Amino acid sequence: MSxxxxxxxxxxxxxxxxxxxxxxxxxxxxxFLDPVGQEVRQRWxxxxxxxxxxxxxxxxxxxxxxxxxxxxxxxWSATTGRHVASGSNAMRARLMVLDRDPQVxxxxxxxxxxxxxxxxGRVRSWVPQLFARYADGTALVADCPGHAEAGGERALRAExxxxxxxxxxxxxxxxxxxxxxxxxxNLRWLAGYRHPRYRGRPGVGDAxxxxxxxxxxxxxxxxxxxxxxxxxxxxxxxxxxxWLAVSLERPLHQGVLVGPGSVRAMAGSSGMxxxxxxxxxxxxxx
Length: 286
Known about the structure:
By secondary structure, the protein is of the alpha+beta class. It is 27% helix and 21% strand. The protein has helices at residues 44-50, 89-99, 152-169, 181-191, 204-211, 218-225, 228-241; strands at 29-33, 39-43, 73-76, 83-86, 104-109, 113-117, 123-126, 130-134, 139-143, 172-175, 216-217, 244-245, 257-260, 264-266, 273-275. The protein is elongated. The model is unreliable at 1-18 and 265-284 (pLDDT under 50).
């Protein structure tokens, strides 16, 4: 496996052999389930070119931890129109961020197991929690720990191996720590309006863009368009998609300033479509 013994991280930091415990001669392998549920084992670099991991079922189920208040579940993705397996509250929050990014085209939970040998020849494996495909064909492979030390030494070794494997194919590996509580709560609220049914009747898109062409208090702009019960769902839908923008760093309220979004919005008979780039936090800042 070329590049592993002398691997350097994305930040330019060196990865000497005593830190990255991978047998450079053995390489990485990918284990995944094909569309009919059969397990497939393939050279990592080949699989990354040929396999659409974003369309695959989990290679193994998310564990159920007794006593934990939130367990595995499914997240309906506005990006794909399908459910994505989710294993924790922290992962669901990160799914929300990625689902809101207009450059993300596919999402999957635990679709691939990464397998390698350490320098002693022992087989090691890790199943990253999250896979996201981007419009340019690259991908993000990520874990979503509930806290910085989650997983201990094994998670640290897996992070180093997964980062090296992703560097080989031009992808990114990241360990995504929990979101700020206020940001996450605001995102959860907007996510409740992500489905197209909240887009509103024809013409609402144009009216929203006009009403909030300049930043103004949320309720003021809503009342200019109609009754809050009718208009607010469409406003929240537009905020989720980035057609309108609001700061998510502070709790949402009726006086919060809403303005034009960083994602271009195109209104017409078919509704609003998106194009643009969201930031790493999921956009929405104004």
